[in-house]
Amino acid sequence: MLSVRFFSLLREALNTEVLELEWSSRCCTVGALKQELIKQNGSFWEEHLMHPNVIHAVNQRVVMIEEPLHDGDEIAFFPPMTGG
Amino acid sequence: MLSVRFFSLLREALNTEVLELEWSSRCCTVGALKQELIKQNGSFWEEHLMHPNVIHAVNQRVVMIEEPLHDGDEIAFFPPMTGG
Amino acid sequence: MGVRVQIEPFDGAQEYGRLAASGHAAVAVFSGQVRDFGYLGDVSLLELEHYPGMTERVLTEIGDSASARFSLLSWRIIHRYGPLKAGEAIVWVGVTAHHREAAFAGCEFIMDHLKTNAPFWKKERHPDGKAQWVAAADTDEQRRRRWHEDS
Amino acid sequence: MGVRVQIEPFDGAQEYGRLAASGHAAVAVFSGQVRDFGYLGDVSLLELEHYPGMTERVLTEIGDSASARFSLLSWRIIHRYGPLKAGEAIVWVGVTAHHREAAFAGCEFIMDHLKTNAPFWKKERHPDGKAQWVAAADTDEQRRRRWHEDS
Q: In this model, does residue C10 exceed pLDDT 80?
């Protein structure tokens, strides 16, 4: 299983808070997961997920697009943070 | 009249808090006043007043040794400040 | 030491009092309040979304790393989420140290990293019903980077 | 805005609360407490002498110049004199601004100038009866100077 979370304007635009995906060994990096999600959901998702500002976290740590995924991981996509 | 004040270790060492001096037109700068005080009080005062760290204020503003004095001025001598 | 991420208001004065009671030589505190004017004009409400779990983890890492870098004696970060009105405190950061330069630097280091690294997102709501996600400021990223430059 | 130079203790938490109640976007506060360890070892008492009149004037000039330079929305400086025990607050500086960088810079600018320009002198009293005037630190002068360098 992979748990995929979306925050802020990505959550709103994609109208999705959490996706639970079957673990598939094909899907081995954050980048590959993005491609998988785009293939399933179309160009609107592509536009948002491929935006150069999108930040990726795996298990609550910000990572690069090449980060490998493992069964049970929690992945998150969100725009740049604006705390404080 | 000139009012001359001493603070901190200068006040303690010279055992003097305030001196009221007659205004004399001979005494026209902070440096000249220092020489006058040394002439009157001797080498112990010279040692303290000529110490390179001594700060001079006229009418509550820090000034250079060349600062001219006027009748009624308040002059102060003190070591570097250590507030905060 | 410690992080609090909460929806409830907090009492910054009490928090300051707690830090000062430590008797540590230097105390530095920063707090940020909701602006009443945003990107689209008057702001009637600010909504703060966050990533529960990751937020606490990132704030703890930022505090620990400020603490190690500046030899802080103590530090505390409080950050709110949920709906906030203009003038309400969003964030409160307080540190203590042996020296004032460490206290100032530690407090500002925490704020500069929190701004760009802690998973919070702000949405402004306006009196006319419009709403707008606040964009991240490039200047915030620049301020964070200056802590990591060779010089 | 304003300066208070007083022998009585003050309530830093209450002062913080007053600043934060302004609702201004950024609040920065620094307070300095008496160290329990000085140049000759344990300090039982710190005595602060000052130059009444000049102190208030210098602190006001420092606050005004920080305010102009960093566009502060408000500022306040409280400084005690007389005998102080370890852990007691000597100085409290609080500022508010539209942005955090101005608040941090304004608060630190005030502290750095106050340290070297305000006419206070510290004398440490030790448990063995010895007393010692605290020497000015070169590092304080360096920290003040960096606000006035071309760069």
A: yes
3-state class of A68 per DSSP? strand
Nearest CB to C20 within list D12, D111, D143: D12
What does the DSSP assignment read for C37-64? EETTEE-SEEEEEE-TTHHHHHHHHHHH
Strands (E), chain A: 2-6, 18-21, 55-58, 61-63, 74-78
Q: Is residue A84 part of a domain?
A: no
Is B17's pLDDT higher than 60? yes
The pLDDT tens digits of the residues spanning B36-75 come to 999 999 999 999 999 999 999 999 999 999 999 999 999 9
* Interface contact D87-C36, CB threshold 8 A: no
- Domain extent, residue A59, equals 2-78
Number of domains composing chain B: 1
C121 to chain D, closest Cα gap in Å: 17
**Domain chopping of chain C, boundaries:** 2-149
Query: What pLDDT digit, counting tens, does each position of C42-54 carry?
Result: 888 999 999 999 9
CA-to-CA distance for C68 and B18, rounded, in angstroms?
A: 50
Selected residue with higher pLDDT from D151 and A69: A69
User: Residue A53: phi, psi to the nearest 5?
Assistant: -85, -10
pLDDT reported for residue C151: 55
Does residue B84 fall inside a structural domain?
A: no
A61 occurs within a structural domain? yes
Which of D10, D22, D29, D73 to mutate to probe the C interface, most C CBs <10 Å?
Answer: D29
What's the CATH superfamily of C2-149? Molybdopterin biosynthesis MoaE subunit (3.90.1170.40)
